[in-house]
């Protein structure tokens, strides 16, 4: 896409200043407005209401819509409708988003205008823009889109209304409704887009899983121990795992029943966990094959908690470091590897002492590495079950452990079970 040439051609056709047209076009495209939709918006802005695109684009099944399509016409049934506020060019703008389906598949959509959509509506959207979102096509319904509601409902093999179990939520889901119990809830002050902002954050759970949440417009019904139904949520990725977001447009209702929280985490092979792209609460098991550098007695910045090297924090410069305990254990189950990161409490359990004990140990040996060596002797070559939050980024896969327990089963039994999986 050459915006410079597009802007020059559009400015020439409109008789407008190229610099202004290019600036406006770049602003719209930077906010993921499809190019043709952006150009049509500028035609209206600069006084050319003639639709140079010609007749309405061809109708397509949703499964056939690709990011290469510029504009399409589709007929489908609205599965979910979410509503939230975004900031665009310094002003707040309300958008509507969710999923639409036909008999061939589903697509996510964003509506930049209020088309009065409701879950269950069957609509025909003419001249809908198409953009690429996380590798998939997404419909954009804007000023140049015509939306017609149909009286006859389209039958689709998908659930309508957005109700979802936590285990099924993925980053990018919008308009989701969940029934959960609030396990943890903390009120915080953050530096938001409008200055100092109060939010709620914590952990939600249902019978299937646990997920973190942020309530950007604190609802009084969300409090620790409450069982609630939250409608119109959206899901983002936070530290490599899905996170539920509650907004000013979300509705929260206290339930007359108690939602039971999952006591156990989903137990997966390491490969299955890695393929998920990140999970807030997961359990894996495997053999510790090594303890990485940076384990044992370490030093942290007192301001941000980051690791300090030679008294230097990358953010705060020269600091007086605080000593801490940490273990970075490489876990292997035959399907993949992951680094399990143990905090000071879990490390103290396997080391057999706290920070003060480790400090004395290192002082007597005149070498901090003896603490890491002791940890290696305690866990390398043994099997463990690890539960925690899995995050995956450019630096690798890390499982921040909340539980770390040795597996006491017979190695021969494990070998037999593995062989049975390979040769059923």
TrEMBL record:
Top-rank taxon: Archaea
CDD domains (alphabetical): SoSSB_OBF
Record keywords, A-Z: DNA-binding
GO molecular function, one term: DNA binding
GO biological process, alphabetically ordered: double-strand break repair via homologous recombination; response to ionizing radiation
Protein name in the entry: Single-stranded DNA-binding replication protein A (RPA), large (70 kD) subunit or related ssDNA-binding protein
Name of the coding gene: rPA12
Region (Disordered): 39-69
Source organism of this protein record: Halapricum desulfuricans
Entry keyword Thylakoid: no
Ranges of Basic and acidic residues composition bias in the record: 39-48
InterPro entries named among the record's database cross-references: NA-bd_OB-fold, SOSS-B
Gene3D superfamilies in UniProt: Nucleic acid-binding proteins
């Amino acid at each position: 896409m050459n915006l410079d040439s597009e802007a020059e051609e559009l400015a020439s056709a409109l008789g407008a200043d190229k610099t202004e047209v290019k600036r406006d076009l770049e602003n719209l495209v930077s906010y993921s407005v499809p190019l043709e939709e952006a150009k049509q918006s500028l035609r209206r802005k600069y006084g050319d209401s003639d639709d140079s695109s010609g007749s309405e684009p061809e109708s397509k099944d949703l499964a056939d819509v690709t990011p290469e399509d510029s504009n399409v016409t589709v007929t489908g049934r609205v599965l979910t409708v979410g509503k939230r506020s975004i900031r665009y060019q310094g002003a707040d703008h309300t958008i509507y988003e969710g999923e639409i389906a036909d008999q061939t598949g589903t697509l996510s959509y964003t509506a930049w205008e209020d088309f009065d959509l409701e879950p269950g509506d069957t609509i025909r959207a003419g001249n809908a823009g198409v953009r690429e979102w996380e590798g998939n096509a997404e419909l954009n319904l804007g000023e140049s889109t015509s939306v017609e509601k149909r009286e006859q409902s389209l039958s689709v093999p998908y659930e309508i209304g957005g109700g979802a179990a936590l285990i099924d939520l993925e980053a990018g889901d919008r308009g989701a409704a969940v029934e959960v119990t609030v396990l943890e809830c903390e009120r915080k002050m953050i530096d938001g887009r409008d200055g100092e902002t109060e939010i709620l954050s914590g952990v939600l759970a249902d019978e299937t899983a646990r997920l973190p949440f942020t309530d950007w417009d604190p609802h009084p019904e969300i409090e620790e121990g409450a069982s609630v139904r939250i409608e119109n949520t959206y899901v983002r990725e936070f530290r490599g795992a899905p996170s539920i977001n509650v907004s000013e447009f979300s509705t929260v209702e206290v339930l007359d029943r108690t939602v039971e929280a999952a006591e156990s985490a989903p137990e997966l092979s390491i490969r299955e966990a890695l393929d998920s792209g990140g999970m807030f609460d997961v359990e894996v098991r495997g053999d510790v094959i090594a303890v990485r550098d940076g384990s044992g007695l370490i030093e942290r910045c007192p301001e941000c908690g980051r690791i300090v090297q030679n008294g230097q924090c990358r953010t705060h410069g020269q600091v007086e470091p605080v000593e801490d305990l940490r273990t970075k254990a490489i876990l292997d189950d035959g399907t993949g590897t992951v680094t399990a990161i143990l905090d000071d409490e879990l490390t103290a359990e396997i080391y057999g002492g706290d920070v003060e004990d480790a400090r004395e140990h290192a002082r007597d040996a005149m070498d901090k590495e003896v603490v890491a060596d002791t940890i290696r002797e305690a866990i390398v070559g043994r099997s463990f079950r690890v539960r925690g939050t899995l995050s995956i980024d450019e630096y690798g896969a890390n499982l921040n452990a909340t539980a770390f327990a040795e597996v006491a089963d017979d190695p021969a039994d494990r070998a037999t079970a593995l062989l049975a999986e390979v040769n059923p």
